[in-house]
Amino acid sequence: MHQSITFSRFKLNTFLACQRRFQLRYLKKTPWPIVSADPQWEELMAQGRLFHQLMERHFLGLPDETESSPDAVVHHWFRLFRQSGLRLPAGRLLPETNLTVPIAGHYLTGRFDLLVLGTEKGQPFIHVFDWKTGRAQAASELRQDWQTRLYFALLAEGSAALLEKGSSIRPEQIRMTYWYVSDPGRPRTLQYDLSWHTENWSEIGAIIAQIQTGLDAGDDPVWPLTPDWSQCRYCPYQSYCDRRDSDTTADDTDDFEEDVPQPAAAMEPTRP
């Protein structure tokens, strides 16, 4: 029986980091061993979630509630955003929106912090905005990041679910802007195009074909461990692989994006 998987950027990153980790986590659904939690890391994650919630409320036109927020750091981040003067193009705003598209018997999914759908010179466009509370990256790094690549691919292949019936969009009509609390005055904007999409979609397909080969082999084969031992330091599964490190802490980066299987290209807002 064919096993259909919904791939988020986290799943793709996990497979590329370590195929064994991918097998244990997403295929065998092996429970994570109990590991120590880093209080500072947990606080940063909680602040990041709260900041994204405030941004969602802001673009839904709801009271932002920053004055009543007990977290001064999150309040400061939101104030930086308001003062940054970031200009959004005119269009329909879709905060916290999921999009899922089919690929080779599986699915790709992503959740966008904000989509702006509009028209320029009589042509439709989609502009993605993503809010970042961590280390700022250069545009050259962001081009290679799987979040960028997956989000662009999703929109190029599944934009029909977002646009008016009968409308279509070309890759060069899709843009993405990263805004960082650590560098609020310098947003990074990337422009997609057909050449990049052709290469991008082909590589995503090749990765999924590689995963499918492993799935076709059945449950018995053990998928290979990463040769990069640095990937093991924060992996909760290291005790299954005899690569234990006493400094291990949990690293569940799925907190900002849920893997929600969908039957076809679909769009739905998340978090009520």
Summarize the structure.
By secondary structure, this protein is of the alpha/beta class.
Structural key phrases:
single chain; about 270 residues; alpha/beta; Lambda Exonuclease, Chain A; seven-stranded mixed sheet; about 35% helix; disordered C terminus
How would you portray this structure in words?
- This protein is globular.
- The protein has helices at 9-17, 19-27, 39-60, 72-84, 139-144, 146-158, 194-216; strands at residues 6-7, 92-103, 106-120, 123-132, 174-180, 188-191, 266-269.
- A hairpin with a 2-residue loop joins β2 and β3 (106-120).
- The protein has a single domain (6-269), classed as Lambda Exonuclease, Chain A (Alpha-Beta Complex), CATH 3.90.320.
- It has 272 residues and is an alpha/beta fold.
- Mean pLDDT is 85; it is low at 246-272.
- The protein is built from 7 helices and 7 strands, in the order βααααβββααββαβ.
- Strands 1, 2, 3, 4, 5, 6 and 7 form a 7-stranded mixed beta sheet that branches.
Strand-residue proportion: 15-25%
Oligomer description: single chain
Number of strands: 7
Low-confidence stretches: 246-272
End-to-end separation: 36 Å
Tell me the CATH architecture. Alpha-Beta Complex
CATH topology: Lambda Exonuclease, Chain A
Q: Determine Rg (CA atoms, Å).
A: 20 Å
Task: Describe the largest sheet.
Answer: 7 strands, mixed
